[in-house]
Specification:
Length: 241
């Protein structure tokens, strides 16, 4: 499958690491090297499987995490070598970068909120107010939430389907899946569970469906919602107002 898609939700490896830290409820000042590395590589591998454009900085961070994990698994010789005592724990540098990134990201969010508040000072048609997002509404779903949901869905499908020889069907294009998914969502009377949009067990069709959803999100044709951390994702027709 040659179709590739790149969307603005990819903000870089530090953004992915912060997502994992929040999702796994990890202390940013005491990052478990092995766990965070395994989870990070799982997401990067999923990006490759889906043929998403993965910037080189993701791979550089992957190499850094692997080195950090390898070091954490080595025997502790700190009592034998004075130089080892003076060597900085690579997690400290990563923590500093994450804290700095988090600080600037939070500042950007606050500036965006101020901008949105300022726009409310100008007159607008009353109808717009009815569609304004509520502060207590569903969580914003990121590309990483989508990747995580795709991981869980494909793992369950592999466990449910017996290993047997099958005849490979004709490959379905992303454009074709976009039309089918959009039609399904428009005909649905309520939000559709993310996993219910993946009826096939064929890898190519699963990938095409996922890329189709991403492209529909990019075109503001659909909205993906989540009511809380670790909750299921739901998809509805219509973009964000």
């Amino acid at each position: 499958m040659e179709y590739k898609v790149k969307i603005d939700s990819f903000e870089g490896p530090l953004d992915l690491l912060l997502h994992l830290i929040n999702k796994l409820e990890i202390d940013i000042y005491d990052i478990p090297a092995a766990e965070i590395t395994n989870q990070y590589l799982l997401y990067v591998n999923t990006m490759h499987q889906l043929e998403l454009d993965v910037a080189s900085e993701y791979l550089v961070m992957a190499a850094t995490l692997i080195a950090m994990k390898s070091r954490s698994l080595l025997p502790d010789h700190s009592s034998d070598e004075d130089e080892y005592l003076e060597e900085e724990d690579p997690r400290e540098e990563l923590t500093r970068r994450l804290i700095e990134y988090k600080k600037y990201k939070e500042a950007a969010i606050k500036l965006q909120e101020r901008e949105e508040e300022r726009t409310k000072l100008f007159s607008r048609p009353p109808a717009d107010v009815l569609f304004a997002p509520s502060g207590e509404g569903p969580l914003n779903v990121s590309i990483y939430d989508m990747l995580g949901a795709f991981q869980k869905m494909t793992r369950r499908k592999k466990m449910a389907v017996p290993r047997q020889a099958t005849v490979r069907r004709e490959e379905i294009s992303v454009e074709a899946r976009m039309e089918v998914l959009l039609k399904t969502l428009k005909e649905a009377k309520e939000p559709v569970l993310f996993e219910d949009l993946f009826q096939s067990n064929e890898r190519d069709e699963l990938v095409a469906s996922f890329l189709a959803l991403l492209e529909l999100m990019k075109q503001n044709e659909i909205t993906v919602t989540q009511q809380g951390n670790f909750a299921d994702l739901y998809v509805i027709s219509g973009g964000k107002q």
